[in-house]
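Annex B. Sample input.
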Amino acid sequence: MIDTSDLSQRLAPIVREVAEEAAAMALRFFRPGEPTSARVWSKAGGSPVTEADVAVDTFLKVRLSALLPEAGWLSEETADDQRRLGRELVWIVDPIDGTRAFLSGSADWSVAIALLAGATPLLGLVHAPAHRAIFEAERGRGARRNGEAIQVAGATDLARATVTGPAPFVKRLEASVPSVRLAPRIPSLALRIARVAEGAVEIGLVSRDARDWDIAAADLILAEAGGRLTDLDGKGPLYNARQPSHGELVATSRALHDGLLAAIRPG
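Annex B, continued. Sample output.
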């Protein structure tokens, strides 16, 4: 058994430095309001990937694996090595979350890094470099944006809440609560959840088939900011499973959570 009592506190400043280097690498290919300068191709299934995704992923794997050689690895851009299933510590990484936003010149993309201990997040960081925002948390130590403490919004009335997410999911909520206020959709799932954590929006909705690398880092940030990320049965995500994918999820404050589930459940 690995002693994790001070591991996250020890690693947090180093992981932040690594994330800043990774973000600087991605920014070399990012052009605000214009298509990326990076080469782009399609992965199996048709989703886009850029040379920036691959370069950042390679950089992060080298740097983070050197910090904890015993840790497993799971990333969107790396072939899955299922030896991770037997590891107590696992890095979960999305080198560029929101690739479509990145390649189109939208600022709503991020670099997401989580460290799992016993299959639950111990450390989480979401860096949105085009917004100059670093969200981070360590288990039991609160959440921060650019070093300042953050917490979820204090709203208690679901009818007045602000929601962001995919249109079909939002429409299901509107069918029950037509007065909810719509915020622009945030393509990066990690950034979408982090925005709930900082109180910029009250509700973030996530479609089916999100992967561990999309949500693990932001899940911890949200929890440490006083919120919850759960499925429609109120259960939190389970990480580092053989198939690291999830069903529909909601991100919100604890105060709004139960009412949101009651409003949005099918039937």
